[in-house]
Amino acid sequence: MHEISLKAEELFRIGSFPVTNALLLSFVSLIVLVLFGLFIRKGLKMIPGKIQSIFEVLMEQILKLMDSVLGDRHISEKYLPLIATIFLFIMTSNWLGLFPFVGPLGLNVEHGGEHAFIPLFRSPAADLNFTMGLAIVALISINLLGVLAIGFKKHAGKFFNVHKPFPVISFVGILEFLSEFVKIVSFSFRLFGNVFAGEVLLLIVGFLVPYFVPLPFLFLEIFVGFIQAFIFGMLTLVFVAMSTAKDGGH
What we know:
This protein is mainly alpha-helical.
């Protein structure tokens, strides 16, 4: 069993930029999604077949779920690309991290006079840099969409607004501003903790009791990978709804 590392292992460098095994698998996830999207686009027809019909039903259910949060189909269709991209990217990277080639396939390197095994691939969400970066992108998108929906002045007024008769309201706005940074921690550590714990669990169980015993845990992690992607996407959707609300509700 190779050593369990909290941080992603560096494979090589492009100039001064380190490429880790988690980053490499995230690129693989991106390529898989692009190829899948091109395949689906090429097969689109006016009269849908069975596969296209299934995807259309799934899309309709996703839009209905977004309608329940945003309250308008036009708005749901507007924000669907962001929410769907986040969900699909996290779910794909989580599931690819469970494939049999993730872990056993790696490089033997010499470090400090000792030989060490570095896995070639690692689940991206098991790297805190990945989840932190994804959380920052989500937070920037949430606030940018809020500015585009209600204007910069009104959106900033949710955080910085001086109320002379009621100074407590101004203090609440500052707390709301600080909570935006807390969202980054909440987003990133929730996803990282669940995926990293699952990766360690599968590694230990597979080492102690190989063959068929780890299968139930593998199916559990497939479900966890979906649920974590769903939670991340839903939280992003809820925060987008709050940020774009014209009544200023936060």
